[in-house]
Design goal:
CATH topology of the largest domain: Rossmann fold
Mean pLDDT: 92
Number of strands: 15
Distance between the termini: 14 Å
Strand order of the largest sheet: 3-2-1-4-5-8-9
Radius of gyration: 22 Å
Number of helices: 15
Order of helices and strands: EHEEHHHEHEEEHEHEHEHEEHEHEHEHHH
Largest sheet: 7 strands, parallel
CATH class of the largest domain: Alpha Beta
Strand content: 15-25%
Shape: globular
Number of domains: 2
Low-confidence stretches: 53-57
Length: 426
């Protein structure tokens, strides 16, 4: 059984989930390989797609640089000479999650790895998978592991209800522009046409929430949808005594530590602004410190009770960070089955979050963490205060045991292997 996992990059949350599945499958004697458009890390049996694309001209390079600069400076006037897609992206709010198009210059079916595989397991393939050429040329069964909503939307990676925060600390409802609606409808029709004649497709969603969203989507409502939670190596993420992790990360030993983790702290969907404002509500607690991990272009003032630990790539160091914390807070406004929540629970560290998406499936209120009563600064502050006043209600051992039971990597692998076998037996 030869499985080819396809992912755009080898960094980020979706890439980590893809890598973990790939490695545990290999440990179960499955011939698993990974095809990537961009490669920075040295995963076993991972390969860079050998593109036949022509090299970019100087003009194209300058256009791409102009677009990046416009986004960074929040200048929403379309730079001259950009494609229609680039113009659309340049005027779309930078506070929204990614928007990706269903077309690319890559034909994955040209790869030798594709030709050798029995099953193609797509993952996060934005700006890599070209819907039209792939589904026209593909002759292999496909399993598509969803890491967000993009595969079945017209471009959005999450259909975001909110954009911004009002003066009362509650989310502001987003107004979807006419241009966004037109572009999304056009892209969705293109996707529907591309897969209309393809039947050998199975969808896998890590959360029940995303599974239900896929089932009722226009694109995937006629395909089998399976719920298989992500798994994690319990020997990397495990409970440790707080003393060493805090020394390692230079975190005060006499403080209660609230932890926030995201690839980008500035990502509006991840909700750091809610946590920051909630922390101001408990500013009278001088024994509490907020530690933030992730990339950011906004300076975090450490003197205000916030300790910026920067971006951490090493998994063992991340395990130490969860162990250094008293609680991990994930104030996402919408999310699938975040790796960060699984990582924290595996370390026995309770999790506090908003009642959204797959997060409500992961947090059992007052058992392994707390769910805020609503999406608001006050709701989050109330949940954090409850935790700080009742730390003994949460058992590190119990949280760890349940996490190992629910998110065991071998259990995940067994479920995928069963699915792969059932597909090949057809």
């Amino acid at each position: 059984m030869k499985i080819l996992h396809v992912n755009t990059l080898d960094k980020g949350g979706a890439a980590n989930a893809c890598k973990r599945l790939h490695l545990v499958l290999r440990s179960q004697d499955v011939d698993s390989k990974v095809l990537l458009r961009g490669k920075e890390n040295n995963w076993p049996k991972s390969y860079l797609f050998e593109s036949k694309l022509k090299s970019l001209s100087l003009t194209e390079k300058l256009q791409n640089k102009a677009l990046r600069l416009a986004k960074e400076l929040k200048l929403y006037k379309s730079p001259v000479g950009l494609s229609e897609e680039q113009k659309f992206l340049s005027v779309r709010s930078s506070e929204l999650e990614l928007f990706s198009f269903p077309s690319s210059d890559f034909d994955i079916t040209e790869s030798t790895l594709y030709k050798e595989a029995d099953i193609i397991n797509l993952h996060w393939v934005a700006n890599f998978l070209d819907f039209k050429s792939f589904f026209e040329n593909n002759t292999k069964p496909v399993v598509w592991t969803l890491h967000d909503m993009n595969p079945f939307t017209g471009g959005e990676h999450y259909i975001e209800e909110f954009l911004g925060i009002d003066q009362n600390g509650k989310p502001s409802f987003r107004q979807v522009s006419k241009e966004e609606k037109i572009k999304s409808e056009f892209n969705l029709e293109l996707k529907k046409k591309a897969i209309s004649q393809f039947n050998d497709l199975n969808i896998v969603a890590p959360s029940r929430w995303l599974a239900e969203e896929a089932k009722k989507s226009e694109l995937f409502n006629s395909y089998p949808v399976h719920h298989i939670p992500n798994g994690l190596d319990k020997d990397i993420y495990k409970p440790l005594d707080k003393f060493f992790p805090r020394q390692l990360l230079n975190i005060p030993e006499n403080k209660k530590v609230i932890l926030f983790v995201a690839d980008s702290i500035d990502n509006h969907r991840k909700g750091f602004i809610y946590l920051k404002k909630a922390f101001e509500h408990i500013s009278d607690r001088k024994d509490v410190i907020l530690c933030a991990i992730g990339n950011t272009v906004t300076e975090l003032k450490s003197g205000s009770g916030i300790l910026n630990l920067g971006f951490i790539r090493d998994e063992r160091l991340m395990s130490a960070a969860y162990n250094a914390a008293d609680a991990f807070v994930i104030p996402s406004l919408i999310d699938n089955l975040p790796n960060t929540v699984i990582e924290s629970l595996m370390c026995g560290t309770p999790v506090i979050g908003f009642p959204v998406g797959g997060i409500v499936e992961m947090i059992k209120d007052k058992e392994n963490g707390l769910l805020a009563k609503d999406i608001s600064v006050s709701g989050l502050a109330e949940a954090i205060s409850y935790f700080l006043n009742n730390p003994d209600k949460f058992s590190k051992e119990s949280i760890r045991a349940k996490a190992v039971e629910n998110y065991n990597a071998k259990k995940q692998a067994d479920r995928y292997i069963k699915l792969y076998k059932s597909i090949l037996e057809k």
